[in-house]
Amino acid sequence: MADVSRGPNLAASIEASLERRAATVLARRGWRPTPVVYDTYGRAAVDGEGGWIRLLCRVLVMPPTARRSAEGRSRGFRRYLSVSAPDLPVRVRIGDTVHRVRTEPGGYLDVRLPVNLPAGQHEVHVEVPGGADPGRGRVDVVDPAIGRGVVSDIDDTAMITLLPSPLQAFWNTFVMQEGQRRPVPGMATFLGRENQGFIVYVSTGAWNYAPVIRHFLDRYEFPAGALILTDWGPSAQRWFRSGLEHKRTQLRRLREEFPELRWVLVGDDGQRDPGIYAEFAAEFPQAVDTVAIRTLTPAEHLLTAGTPLAPDELARRVPVVGLEGRDPAEIPDGVRQLRGGDGNALVVASL
């Protein structure tokens, strides 16, 4: 039997080789490695257990004057024109602690670093040899005694995008600028009411877009939190990374890292959020406090999926591959369920 992973693995290897060669050529032209640090989270030291932070960062090779593009302040398509710097030594400083690590394929860093910090917001600095100015990012260090955390989707939950209609997706991703994006009415208020000090925004969007999302959340006064996105390129297992598996994996990771917390899971019914959250709640009922779903209108469903029915409604007729046919009706008793057309309706439902 042929090895089905051989193609994606070969593609990922070719991509990494091209990135290394491109980085070498551009370095001769004066381009320098530039770290872009994403908002992330950590755990405070409690009950004799040491604390840590999760560092999320990417190192890109670019002209010395091009940090504006890396930070997401340029028009959409320019954010995707970048060359990464894999296998590069990196110096990480947070508080009085210094760590040295190396970038992974794609120039990414996703590592857990031991550091004892009090609960609250802290700044992390990332430097690379021969690079531009250090990259800076925000880390929310969490005391698990808060008891509850929030996980929120972004597209069509916090930000109106109406994906994945192909034309709309192209326009939103590669043309539209950050200032033109609109928030879902009332969602910042709803998330602010549910937030007790720890919120994580999880999206299937590409990491290139993280700075734009951060600016959007700040502009419309959403609660500050960590951003967990993904990469669109090939991996050793797949030609394209699975958004479904990305959200599943991140939910389980958060549960393992913070077993004391119960989670408020916020999403929309334009894609697979209801099924993903229902599956997680059925598997870990004691870890879920609330499942809150923004319900799209039939017209919005028609734009996003080509049908006026929500995916969980379709699942009652055709099982959803990879979700074992589960839908919100299978969420265990004792888990609060909220539904509404926007954040204002969810606030009312929560009352």
Automatic annotation (TrEMBL):
This is Phosphatidate phosphatase APP1 catalytic domain-containing protein. Residues 149-294 form the Phosphatidate phosphatase APP1 catalytic domain. Pfam families: APP1_cat. Transmembrane segments: none annotated. GO terms for molecular function: phosphatidate phosphatase activity. The lineage of its organism: Bacteria, Bacillati, Actinomycetota, Actinomycetes, Micrococcales. It comes from Litorihabitans aurantiacus. It comes from the Bacteria. InterPro entries: APP1_cat, Mg2+_PAP.
